[in-house]
Amino acid sequence: MPRPARVNPSRQKNPTFTRPQKPKGDHRARQPAHEYALEALPGLEEVAAEELRGVPLARDLRGLRFWYPGDPERLTRLRGAVAAYRVRAWDVPRPRGLLGHQQLGELTAFLGEVVRWGGHRSFRLAAAGRESAVMIRLAEELSRGLDLPFDPEEGELLVRLRPQEGGPGWEVLARITPRPLSARAWRVCNRGGGLNATIAYALHRLAGVREEDRVFNPMAGSGTLLVERALLGPSAAMVGVDIDPGAVACARANLQAAGREVEVAEVDALATGLPPRSFDLIVCDLPWGDAIGSHRANAALYPAFLTEMHRLLSRHGRLAVVTHEIRLFEGLLRDQDRWHVRELFQVYSGGHHPKGYLLSKR
Ligand SMILES: C[S@@+](CC[C@H](N)C(=O)[O-])C[C@H]1O[C@@H](n2cnc3c(N)ncnc32)[C@H](O)[C@@H]1O
Q1: 263, 255, 257: which is closest to 237 by C-alpha?
Q2: How many CB atoms lie within 10 A of CB 273?
Q3: Is 12's pLDDT higher than 70?
Q4: How far apart are CA 229 and CA 197, in angstroms?
Q5: For a 10 Å CB count at each end of the chain, is N or C smaller?
Q6: What pLDDT sits at residue 24?
Q7: Whose CA is nearest to atom 1 of ligand 1?
Q8: For the sheet containing 237-242, what is the strand order?
Q9: What's the N-to-C CA distance of the chain in angstroms?
């Protein structure tokens, strides 16, 4: 038997029917949206996606791609992603099609909008075959159209060309900021072995950000973990130490640039003299044995570190660690019964693939 036709309730004659109201609320939601994509370090995509879910007005989220009608400035404050891009696709079978009169005009206008907003002073192209005749021609045309120097290595406007995701054409991604988001404005002092700030952000997010935590950052280096935690919100207390006076000065300078008051002391993390159970959250980027420390020294440092942090951590406290000494660290944790261990992530960054762990007392 044929089904009775469905009646669209909004079309039913009804004396109480009124026209649908225009959406109320934030006027930005009615502005034209643009498509964006975030880039995260491999291994931290979910951290970046979780942060993106908290951006008001971001819609049609597909992993790290989304549509957004608001001011892009909000996207530059994301801390789990290394870069944010405007995205636009062209229905061309290969990049050569972007040199067509209409496509080139549209592409120049699209990039010009990004440059007007971001203030980039040069550009570069990232694409398979970027040395090809087509790419060289595209660079020349864009340089003329945008009135912007082409700098293939250091160009501030990073333009990525790649086959369209889920479509037949090619898409262009234009980084909205002249520098990556991971290059923080607060970093006025850098040191070899400094942690990528998005890894520090991820470690804190996954270890939990709690106002009541007394936070300790042994081996603070340039203070990346301290600054990123301080920017995430208040804590009951926070202190960092490093054995190297240069590192202490560097961490202090970065904290000051970030506008955060946190005590950093020149102290051996293994001999602080602090009473047991002084902290609820200890976060540490241990020496990896290449740029900082040596594998030989780490063989003695790591077990001593675990013993001392067990003493300093409160009964229900968390110890969050990032390290590239994976075999050494996991070996120590295999042969012990004092810690519960959870792997948080493994991330690929700058030729390294460190892991993050969360430990709690058994
Ligand atoms: C991997 S680096 C930390 C890098 C830091 N996360 C950053 O972003 O700059 C390790 C740091 O541990 C410090 N360190 C090594 N042994 C230490 C100890 N026993 N007590 C305190 N600091 C120590 C080193 O001086 C170095 O600054």
Answers
A1: 263
A2: 6
A3: no
A4: 11
A5: N
A6: 57
A7: 287
A8: 263-266, 237-242, 214-218, 279-285, 313-323, 355-361, 339-346
A9: 66
Residue 95 has φ and ψ, to the nearest 5°, of: -55, -30
- Asked which of 13-17, 181-185, 188-192 is least confident by mean pLDDT, the reply is 13-17
State the closest ligand 1 atom to the C-alpha of 305, by its place in the atom list counted from 1.
Answer: 19
Which residue among 243, 288, 296 has the greatest number of ligand 1 atoms within 8 angstroms of its CB, and so is best to mutate? 243
Of 303, 312, 305, the C-alpha closest to 273 is: 312
Which CATH superfamily is 197-361 part of?
Vaccinia Virus protein VP39 (3.40.50.150)
Per-residue pLDDT tens digits for 80-102: 999 999 999 999 999 999 999 99
pLDDT of residue 31: 76
Number of H helices and E strands in the chain, helices first, is 8, 14
Residue 6 has pLDDT above 80, yes or no: no
Q: Whose CA is nearest to atom 27 of ligand 1?
A: 221
**Could you tell me the fold of the domain covering 27-175?**
VC0802-like (3.30.2130)
Q: Do 27-175 and 197-361 share a fold?
A: no
Q: What separation in Å is there between the alpha carbon of 302 and the centre of ligand 1? A: 12
Ligand 1 centroid to Cα of residue 284, in Å, is: 8
The burial class, CB within 10 Å (0-12 / 13-18 / 19+), for 276 is exposed
Q: How far apart are CA 235 and CA 179, in angstroms?
A: 30
**β-bridge partners, 159:** 125, 174
pLDDT in tens, 98-156: 999 999 999 999 999 999 999 999 999 999 887 899 999 999 999 999 999 999 999 99
Please state, in angstroms and rounded to a whole number, the distance separating the CA atoms of residues 266 and 241. Answer: 6
Residue 219 Cβ inside 6 Å of ligand 1? The answer reads yes
Per-residue model confidence (pLDDT) at position 289: 87
Does the CB atom of residue 250 touch ligand 1 within 6 A? Answer: no
Domain boundaries along the sequence of the chain: 27-175, 197-361
Q: What is the mean pLDDT of residues 176-193?
A: 97
**pLDDT tier, 204 (very low <50, low <70, confident <90, very high otherwise):** very high
What distance in angstroms lies between residue 45's CA and the mean position of ligand 1's atoms?
A: 27
